[in-house]
Amino acid sequence: MSLLKRIPLFVLRLLALGATVSATAIMITSRDTADVLSMKFEAKFSNSPTFKYFVIVNAIASGYTLILLFFPAKSSCGHFILVLDLIIALLLDSSISACLAIGQVGKKGNSHAGWLPICGQVPKFCDHITGALISGFVAAIIYFLILLYSLHNLMNLFTISQD
Amino acid sequence: MASEGVDKLPEVGHEQVPVVRSKVVWLVPVLRLLAFFATLSATLVMALNKQTKTIVVATIGTVPIQATLTAKFQHTPAFVFFVIVNGNASLHNLLTLVVSFVCKKFDYKGLVPLTITVLDLMNVAFISGGVSAAAFMGQLGRDGNSHARWNKICDKFETYCNHGSGAIIASFIGLMLMTSISTISLVRLRNNYNRIVLNSSVGV
């Protein structure tokens, strides 16, 4: 691939690396303690399997992006990389969707199930989760842009072939 | 060069381009039919997911006070999103199935197959979001979260939880089928693109 085509892809991957690394870091450092009725209870990201899944997926995505940044662009592996890109984009998408669902329950509660919202007691934890989610959103969007760009490069997908 | 029955290009010094009109034409429509059934069943099972239970809350004297609790899918936004996304995907599968039967020459060139492939990718992304949100919500309902003092609800509403799990499994199967449909369509588009590039380079 010519240099002109490789530069936007490199920039996009760099942005995606930044977004996934920051999402992982923000989620890992989310922690807050609350004193409720003289009982200390602590909210960490590891309390919920959903947030652990989010951290794992973003860590995998950042490692993958880091490896691909230093990968020479050979067109023989181009299609394999495309499939891997699709898989990572779908994983990122699913992680933010799951965290949104659980975060919504944490913020608003679920009166039908008798689940009280916890964001009133641990506001710093909730803010960290929100920040990590925003970073995860940005990472997913950038990965979909990378996917569209690679598709267009590899098979000229967005020009209408008249034949 | 007139189009023959089996499109094989002459040697141009590069690799041989594989045949364009693949012999397994029925593969994608069959996968789409299966994906349509999977997403449709996920939508219907989750949309009709409802369980009512009467439990005794307190006893005043000898009269037990009963409360009727209902578990519906609308109570959880994650399940609402799940139903919407799966309905959307089953509608998309049905329409593309109809299109692929009506258009006799579905040749993976032009605007229509491109739109269908892009819509396929979008629906795959939506379904992956919906199914993971519903799966983690179901896990929360099944196990509860002791740190947040959220009790589990699946021991009281077993049918609701079982129906929900069935719908999520069906949607996972639909997700895998739709991902393979997208991959096959992308591979066929690439083959077509290679054929066009080689044709124009040979100067046919």
TrEMBL record, chain A:
It is a multi-pass membrane protein. The chain crosses the membrane at residues 53-73, 80-103, 132-151. Its main location: membrane. InterPro entries: CASP/CASPL (IPR006459), CASP_dom (IPR006702), CASPL (IPR044173). Residues 1-23 form the signal peptide. GO terms for cellular component: plasma membrane. It is found in: Cell membrane. Residues 9-141 form the Casparian strip membrane protein domain. NCBIfam families: A_tha_TIGR01569. Homodimer and heterodimers. Belongs to the Casparian strip membrane proteins (CASP) family. This is CASP-like protein.
Automatic annotation (TrEMBL), chain B:
One of its GO terms (cellular component) is plasma membrane. It is found in: Cell membrane. It is a multi-pass membrane protein. Pfam families: CASP_dom. The chain crosses the membrane at residues 24-48, 55-73, 79-102, 114-137, 167-187. Its main location: membrane. Residues 24-176 form the Casparian strip membrane protein domain. Keywords: Cell membrane, Membrane, Transmembrane, Transmembrane helix. Belongs to the Casparian strip membrane proteins (CASP) family. Homodimer and heterodimers. This is CASP-like protein. It comes from Penstemon smallii.
